[in-house]
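Task: encode each sequence below as structure tokens.

Item 1
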Amino acid sequence: MQHKIPDFEPTESRSDLDITGAIISLIGLVLFVWGILMLTKDTSTSIMVIVAGLIILAAFAWFESRRKSNGKVPLLDMGLFKDRNLRVGAIIRLIGCLAMGGALFAVSLFLQSVMQLNALNTGLTTLPMTIGLLIFAIAAPSLSTKFGHKKLIAVGSLIAIVGCVILSYQFRLNTSMYDLMPGLFVLGAGLGFVMSLSTDISLINIPKENENNASGVLTTTQTLGESMGTAIIGVILILGVMGGLSTAIDMYAPDHANDPQFFDDAANYLQAAGTDNITQDNTVMKAVDTIIQEAMGFVMIVTAILLAIVFIATLRLQPKKQ
């Protein structure tokens, strides 16, 4: 297939490569993502690392602006962000990938930890989400000529929110893989519109000579969103478990509110859910079932809120300039 790829004339030389800017941006992004990944272990340290990462990224933006003003080729032309669609599109892709990656992480964790599915069955269960995303992503370009990018992205975010609402009621100890498939398909269908069209609308007003730079911005935000999704939703899941435990004790075992043994039993059951070597205490089982419902439901609500932000951001998109 190599001979079918056209040759392109180089537009820059090796001497134009902004090595300093690349190093600064790398350090900033690594610190930012690392800080998010540390949130569940050491909150105070993670916040300091995140702030340090943001400061370095701000220094990177300043360095790139100075480099361009000195007549040198910047790694990232900060002037690109004057285009509203690129700014909004980058936010849409960041939040969309955060929601998609985080939801998929939480669902996969539930399937393997609670339902005790192997990797193959976990993949089969989440396959409807991929199928929905693929079908609607393929259909999106042709539909956009009739309805426009802005409307379809907005509709897609609303469809994805419906998928989150459906899924929020499906997580229990006795949930089967078939219970999750409809909600996952609807979620994937909505994300298919959002992810496929957000790139086009982001670049629609960018000059051709700057499209490679703008495309790099979108790719970076997508990768960053996926990395952040796993970490942030992990934190949300832990908060959901804590809230669910409190609710479960109030509902089924108010006399055990200060009983550490009951907490240990509930935690052990939660870790061993789906296996044969677990306690059969009915109260503990009900408590753990409530914890799972509360935790996973909370994750889906947060995901829906993120998609609502995508919907609001979509309203800021502009049509193609004539």
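Item 2
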Amino acid sequence: MSYPMSGTSADAMNDYWAKRIAEEQAKQAEANKDAVAAAAETVKKVETAKAEDGTTDWTVENNLAINKRLDKESIKKLQTYLKVEADGDFGRNSKKALQTLLGVKADGIIGPASVKALQTKLLNEGLYTDAIDGKFGNNTAVALKAFIDKNA
């Protein structure tokens, strides 16, 4: 960034700084626009998933549940089992890998259809005994942890 030389008139200095401020505001506005577009795309994907499989607000809860209900070491073991980066954060790639394992649409959004498939798998493994309801609750988390301990 070049600065005006000393001895420059006050008007020239004001113009210089006004231009710099406007440039920074334009950069920030562009960054904000990108962030808003990304957020809108995520909302659209969740809404699409909700429309496709009759999802309720559990879509949001289900997408947070693995990170909230399992410890990082268990998540890393599951990620290793799924052959994705084992970073302890069950993000989009991990969710897609789990969905692929379960044979459901691999869109990285854990809706009720994904959780029902997981609950069914865990039931078939003899690790889950609760209702197949599409909600990633405590019993699903306990059964998934048992699956991880058994297989990963």
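Check on item 2: The chain has six helices and no strands. Residues 107 and 138 are 24 Å apart (CA to CA).
End of task.
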